[in-house]
Amino acid sequence: MAYRFEEYRTAVLRDYEKQKASGKLPLKLAFPTVVNLKEHALSACKERFLRIDENVLISFFERQSDPDAYIDAINKADADIFRPVNYFLKGRTQNPEEKQIELLAWLTDFANRPYSNYISKVTEKKGVRAIITHIGAIPQTLWEHIPIKYLKLCIYIIIPVLFLTLFLLKDIGGPGRAAPGFVYVCESPTAIRYHLRINCIGLRNCQHRIIKISVNDAKQTGLTLCHLEGG
After folding, report:
1. Looking at CB atoms within 10 Å, which of 81, 139, 169, 184 has the fewest?
2. Angle at 152 between CA 51 and CA 145, to 5 degrees
3. What's the rounded Cα separation, in Å, for the pair 23 and 33?
């Protein structure tokens, strides 16, 4: 698999800018300083400590025994630890160390962090898109904004249902239709429907003769039009 950390870095920064533009960022992140970033790190560790974030915490604050110990380590750390992230957010540096990007991803609660998780999800999403591309071309500007859960829904549910519907509809109209004024019925004492086409799905389970009679005769015997054909 190609190493694509630059892509990840761009995605993390884009997510930060998107949250900032929409007003969703906490003030300490929206107006970053080393002190604000440190204070936000303390809040993040208290409110949403996750095991997936432990590696990045270890890289800055060493391995600790539990969330409270990490909070204590962050509290004791020099705020200058956050200076590279602060410079990156302010555009004063373009290519910080990878661990700084992981730190930013944690601070901003980037959904697809860390990098390994991001790559696996992007690869999966592109695989799903490739399948759809073979089914039919999708405009670039459209599929770039479709979440993967909806792409999966399209592939595994909507498209199969569409094909099934088309398969069922093929038995309505076309060859096999009775002459005007006539219909087909299963010559069974339990039959309750009449059919416009001899190859209607509703007749496939008929264990008796299939006969052609007039519509009037069918209605007079209490038969009604098959629901697959509009009844």
Report:
1. 139
2. 80
3. 18
